[in-house]
Design a protein that fits this description.
Length: 391
C-alpha cells in the first residue's frame, strides 16, 4: 500500500484548497481532480475505495486479546462454607486461570489453555472432577470429559472412565490421536494404554468427604427417603473452561465425576458434544447443571447457533437457554460462554457457581456466590424452585 501513501502526499502537493481532505501519517491530501503518480492515476472515488480496503486490511491484522473463562460447577453454594474451604476453592480457581492464561500469553492455542485450566481443577479434591469425583451407587468413580476445537470443529470425549487421572487429557488424545470422537469405559482406558497414558489405581479418587456423601445417600435410598443432604441432592459437579487465543480461535472443555449415587452407567451432558461442550468459529460453551436437560436442549450447541446463525448477543443467547429454556422444562444449572470479540457470559440460575475469568490485564477474577460481583455484570436469574443440579 506504499503507492497509496505516495498518492496521498502527491495530492497534498497538487490539490487545490477546495475539496476533500484525507490524512495519512500526518500528511493531508486535498484534491478535486485525479492525482497522477507516474503511470498510476488515482481518482477520488477510487481513492476512497482504496482507503476502505486499507482500513479493513489493517483491522484484520489487529491483535486479538486472549481471554480465558472457567467454572467449577453451579449448584447450591451457600455462604456457610468454612473459611478454609472457601480460601482453597478461590485459590484453585485462581491457579487454573493463571496456568491457562500462561498458555495464551505464550502464543499457544486455545486448546492448550482449556486443557491446562481443567487439569488444575481435576487435580483438586474440592471439585467434582478427577481427584474430587463423587461415587456412584456401586461405590465407584466414573468420570466423563470432552474438549472441542472451534477452529477445526474437531472434538474428543470420554465417558465412564475409572482409572484416568485427568480425563480431559484423554478426551484430547481421542481427538488428536484417534479417528473417533467418543470412547467409553474399558475401551477408552485400553486406548489410553495404547498411547502410553498411564492408568491409576481407583483408590486415587477416593476422598472421605465424597465417600460419606454416598453412605448418607445409600441409607436414604434404603429408607426410600429423599436425600436430606443438599450437597448430595443438588451436587455442584463439573468443571469447565472456554478460551480465545491470539489467533482468534476458540475452544471449550468440560470434565465431571457425574452425580452422587448415580446408577446403571448413567452419563450426563458433559462428554456429549453439543450438550455440555461445544465450540465453533464464533462461540464456545461449557455447561454445568442437570445433565439430562442439557442433553435434551442440546444446550451448548443451541447457545452457539443463536450467536453465530441468529446473530444474537452472547449474553442474551446464553441467558435464553440457561435461564429460560432449561428451567421451563424443570432443570437448572449454569454455563460459561465466550465469543470471538472476547465477550463473556456466565449465566446461572442456582444459588451460586464457582467461576472466574482472566483477560488482557492478566488479573484473575474469581467469584463463588450468586450475589457476588464476578466483574462482568452478569446477574444470575432466581433459583428454580424444586430443581436439582445434576451434572
Amino acid at each position: 500500500m506504499d503507492w497509496l501513501a505516495s498518492a496521498l502526499y502527491q495530492g497534498r502537493r497538487q490539490g487545490s484548497a477546495a475539496g476533500v481532505a484525507v490524512t495519512k501519517h500526518g500528511r493531508t491530501a486535498r484534491y478535486t481532480r485525479p492525482v497522477a503518480l507516474g503511470e498510476i492515476e488515482v481518482k477520488p472515488h477510487r481513492l476512497f475505495v482504496a482507503l476502505a480496503v486499507f482500513g479493513i486490511a489493517t483491522m484484520s491484522h489487529a491483535a486479538v486479546l486472549p481471554v480465558l473463562v472457567i467454572h467449577g460447577g453451579a449448584g447450591v453454594i451457600k455462604r456457610d462454607m468454612t473459611p478454609v474451604r472457601e480460601k482453597a476453592v478461590r485459590a484453585a480457581l485462581t491457579l487454573a486461570l493463571q496456568n491457562g492464561y500462561a498458555q495464551l500469553k505464550a502464543g499457544k492455542p486455545a486448546l492448550d489453555a482449556v486443557t491446562a485450566a481443567i487439569v488444575v481443577l481435576e487435580d483438586d479434591p474440592n471439585f467434582n472432577a478427577g481427584k474430587g469425583s463423587v461415587f456412584t451407587h456401586d461405590g465407584k468413580n466414573e468420570m466423563d470429559a470432552a474438549i472441542m476445537d472451534g477452529n477445526t470443529q474437531r472434538a474428543g470425549s470420554v465417558a465412564d472412565v475409572q482409572r484416568i487421572k485427568n480425563p480431559i487429557l484423554l478426551a484430547r488424545a481421542v481427538m488428536e490421536k484417534s479417528p473417533h470422537v467418543m470412547l467409553a469405559g474399558e475401551g477408552a482406558e485400553a486406548f489410553a494404554q495404547s498411547i502410553g497414558m498411564p492408568l491409576v489405581d481407583p483408590s486415587y479418587f477416593r476422598t472421605e468427604e465424597r465417600w460419606q456423601q454416598l453412605q448418607k445417600a445409600l441409607k436414604e435410598d434404603a429408607g426410600k427417603q429423599a436425600h436430606a443432604d443438599v450437597e448430595t441432592a443438588k451436587h455442584f459437579g463439573t468443571v469447565g473452561a472456554v478460551a480465545l487465543d491470539a489467533e482468534g480461535h476458540l475452544a471449550a472443555g468440560t470434565s465431571t465425576g457425574g452425580m452422587t449415587d448415580k446408577r446403571w452407567g448413567r452419563i450426563g451432558d458433559s462428554p456429549i458434544i453439543g450438550a455440555g461442550t461445544y465450540a465453533n468459529s464464533g462461540c464456545a460453551v461449557s455447561g454445568t447443571g442437570w445433565g439430562e436437560f442439557y442433553i435434551r436442549t442440546v444446550a451448548a450447541h443451541e447457545i452457539c447457533m443463536k450467536v453465530t446463525q441468529m446473530r444474537e448477543p452472547l449474553k442474551l443467547a446464553a441467558a435464553e437457554v440457561i435461564n429460560q429454556e432449561i428451567p421451563s422444562m424443570g432443570g437448572n444449572g449454569g454455563a460459561i460462554a465466550l465469543d470471538t470479540d472476547g465477550h463473556i457470559a456466565i449465566p446461572f440460575n442456582t444459588d451460586g457457581m464457582y467461576r472466574g475469568w482472566i483477560g488482557a490485564d492478566g488479573v484473575p477474577h474469581v467469584a463463588i456466590y450468586g450475589d457476588e460481583d464476578d466483574g462482568i455484570a452478569e446477574p444470575p436469574a432466581p433459583a428454580s424452585a424444586g430443581s436439582a443440579d445434576q451434572p
